[in-house]
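Appendix C reproduces, verbatim, an entry submitted by the partner laboratory led by Prof. M.T., so that reviewers can inspect both the input and the predicted structure.
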Amino acid sequence: MATDPIRISWRHRLLAILAGAVLPFAFAPLDLFPLAFLAPAMLFWLWCKVTPWQASQLGFLFGLGQFGVGVSWIYVAIHDVGQSPAWLAGGMTLLLVAFLSLYPALAGWLVVRLRGRLSGSLWMLGLVPALWVLTEWLRGWIITGFTWLQLGYSQIDLPLSGLASWLGVYGVSWAVALSSALLVSAIRQVGTGRWIPLTGLFVLWVVAWLAGQMPWSTPVGKELKVALIQGNSPQTTKWDPDKIKMRQDLYLRLTRANWDRDLIVWPENALTTFYHNLDKDYLQPLAAEARTHHTDIVFGVPFMDLNTDRYYSSMASIGATPGIYHKRHLVPFGEYVPFESLLRGLIGFFDLPMSGFSRGENDQSYLMAAGQPLAPSVCYEDTFSEEVIDFLPHATLLVNGSNNGWYGDSFAPPQHLQMSRMRAAETARPLLRATTNGISAIVDYRGRIVSRSAQFKTVVLTGVVQPRQGATLYVRVGNSLVIGLVIGLVLLLWWRGRQQC
C-alpha cells in the first residue's frame, strides 16, 4: 500500500543531483561499476514516499547531475572545435542537459502516478525498473534519439551483459535497474526478510551469466587478417586545403605497408574530398593495386550525388567487389541543421564545412569485402542497435568508421567504444572499429576487446578476425520484445493497483 508523501528538503534534492553526477563514473573510462547500481538505487529510494510532482523534481535533478557530467564533452565539440564562444557553448550544452533530464523526470512522475495501491515490493521491483527502461527507450527514439549513458552499457564487461544477445541493451538496462530496485528492497526490509531480495539479486546475475553462454553464431569462412588505420587527424585540420593532400598520402603510405592484410579499414571521412573528385587519379589506381595484392579496402569519404547535388557521409569499399554505403542516422547540428532556413548563419557552429549532409536510404545493402558481407555503420549511428541489425543475419562482420576528433580528451571516445562493443555482444559478430584519432579497436563476437589503439597517435592496428554466421534472438526481434514486455508489465501493474483502490 502506498504511504503518505513526505516533504522533500534540500538534502533530498542534493542527494538526487549527487547520485546522478556519480553515475557517469560507472561507464568508461573509469568503469566504477558499483555506481551503476548504487546511483539509481538512491534515486529509487528517494521516490518511495513522495508525490508525482516531487518525484519528477528529483528525477530532473538526477538527470542534471547525470548528463551534466556524462555529456559535458558536448561543450568541447561546440567550443573547441566549433569555435563558438564559451557562453554560447555552455548555454547550448546546458539546454541539451536540461532536455535530457526530462526523461528521468518523466520516469519519476509515472512511477508514483501509476502506483495506485500496489505493495511496496511489487511497486519497487515491477513498476520502477520497467518505467526506467521505457523512458530510456523513449530517449533513444524521440527527436532522432540520444542513447548515451543508458544503464546497460556500463555492464559490457560484467555478467549482466549476457542478456544483450537476447534482449539488447535495453534488456541489460532492465536488469541493472532491477538490481538497483532489489538493493532498495533489501535495505527497506527488516530482519531475515532482506535475504529474499538479495537472493533474487544473486539469481538474476546467475541467469544473466548463463544466458551469455549461448553461442548463437558459428564461424564461417577463413580467418581474415585485418588492419585498421588511424591517421590521427585533428578535427580542426580535416577541412584545411593545405592538409588534405598530406592526409591522402598518409593513408596511402600506411595502406601500402599492409598489403599482406585481407581487409584494411579507414575511419569516417578519412578523405575529406568528394568521392568523384578522387576517383580517377587516386581511388582507381589504389583499387587496382589492392586487387593485385588480394586486399580490399573500406574507407570513409563524403559522396556527392551529381544528379541532385546532395552529399552523404559514406563508407565505400574498393577491391574485388566495390560498393558504397551512405550514413542513415545523422547528428543534429553537426551533420545537418534542423530548421536550417532559420538557424543557418546565426551561429558559427551551424556553418561548419559539410554540415549539410543528406540522410541515406533505409534499404541499403551491406558492403562486400574480403569475400564477406559487412554490416557498415558510420560513427554515431552504431549507438542505435536496431539500425545495425538491419544488415543481419546476412552480414558476418560489423565495421564501423568513426570520427571522435570532435571531443578531444573527454569521456566521449571511451564511452563510444563501450557502446560499439555492445553491438558486437547483441549480434554475436566481431567488430572492426577504425577512428580518426582513437579509440580504434578489434572486438570479438562477445563484445570483448581483442586489441585497441592509443588516442592521439598515428596507429595501424593489425589482427585476425573470424567471420561468423547465425542470428541471436535480438537480431531476430530487435527491441520489440523487451519494450513489449516492459509496456505489458506497466499496464498490468497499473491495472492491479487500480483494482486494489
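Residues 219-471 form a domain with the Nitrilase/N-carbamoyl-D-aminoacid amidohydrolase fold (CATH 3.60.110.10). Additional entries are available on request from the coordinating office.
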